[in-house]
């Protein structure tokens, strides 16, 4: 979070070296913690002034390129420890998944892209629905959740979570909304 806050102060585009492997790890982290389409969408290619041009490349592709061109890279020392969930996934879970599917990083990244597109379509559809108790009661749950999320954000809830949306739904379907 601090890193991205700093990036925002720079005002210029910042390219990160996130790869398909990082994206796959992110998807698995979100899956473990519990998530919806947004979390399963993994790492977005663009977030504000941060761009991630290497999401379609694997870590092995990047390392091979660096080796071929005799280029050095800096590895964050925190990547060596299992103190962080991402590293435990990277060191223990991903190797097991790669035994089953050597292209697991690419597969999970492709799935994440499709789910980001689905999330975008649902959100865009939800943006055209009027905000009223009667219309919300008639909406499909996925669309209603996005309408309520938007409403909660506009009402000052910075990052509405599933519990916030569930409470709002309870109000909508109560006898006295």
Describe the overall structure.
It is built from nine helices and three strands. The chain has a three-stranded mixed β-sheet with strand order 1-3-2. The longest helix is centred in the middle third of the chain and has 24 residues, at 104-127. By secondary structure, the protein is mainly alpha-helical. The mean pLDDT is 94. A hairpin with a 2-residue loop joins strand 2 (46-47) and strand 3 (50-51). It has helices at 2-10, 20-33, 37-40, 59-68, 85-100, 104-127, 133-138, 141-154, 162-172; strands spanning 14-15, 46-47, 50-51. It starts with a helix and ends in a 5-residue tail after the last helix.
What does the overall shape look like? Answer: elongated
- Tally of extended strands? 3
Please report the distance between the alpha carbons of the first and last residues: 37 Å
The share of residues in extended strands comes to: under 5%
Low-confidence stretches: none
Q: Structural class, please? A: mainly alpha
How would you state the average pLDDT, rounded? 94
Query: Main sheet, how many strands, which sense, barrel?
Result: 3 strands, mixed
Order of helices and strands: HEHHEEHHHHHH
Helix content: 55-70%
Main sheet: which strands, in order across?
Answer: 1-3-2
- Rg over alpha carbons: 20 Å
| Number of continuous helical runs | 9
